[in-house]
Amino acid sequence: MQYPAPIAHLIDSYMKLPGIGEKTATRLAFYTLDMPDEDVHGFSTALTEVKEKLHRCSICGNITEKDPCAICSNPERDQSTIMVVEQPKDVMAFEDMGEYSGLYHVLHGVLSPMDGIGPEEINIKSLIVRLQKQDDVKEVILALNSTPEGESTAMYISKLIKPAGIKVTRLAAGLAVGSDIEYANSITLKRAVQGRTSI
Mutual orientation of helices 22-34 and 5-15 as an angle, nearest 10°? Predict the structure, then answer.
């Protein structure tokens, strides 16, 4: 069956979202059709505002309305530590945790030569420039995902930073609480051994 053009266009638009297939997109499109007009307008406004009002912080690369962002412009933050993360949502996760009070640097991706993503395609160069300007930085924490791409990106950044005499650390990672050793992959086990602590 051929849908009317507005519905077909909305289905196509929903399918551009990650993890949304044709069936889910169709369900969402018809759900949207049944929504009250004010909710649809609110949804539409929210989509427009997120593209028009948010941009990257000129210092850390996080998403923000004001430049620099609230974290970079906060003098109460620990200026000696920068945590490097892959995406803005990672900043939110650490902030929700409430245990980290330093600064951030958002890469907006990881190195992936197979996908044509090299150092120039992500936010590495600005990190190096930032470290050259901010001589009070004592430690860079590489908080990247434990994927092959995350690991290679961490190694690449570490090699760039270490000659400057700045301490480079990696988040401890390993076995999740309640998991069985026999089901863990070799990278997880390696990180668990390397990140072991005294008890």
Answer: 130
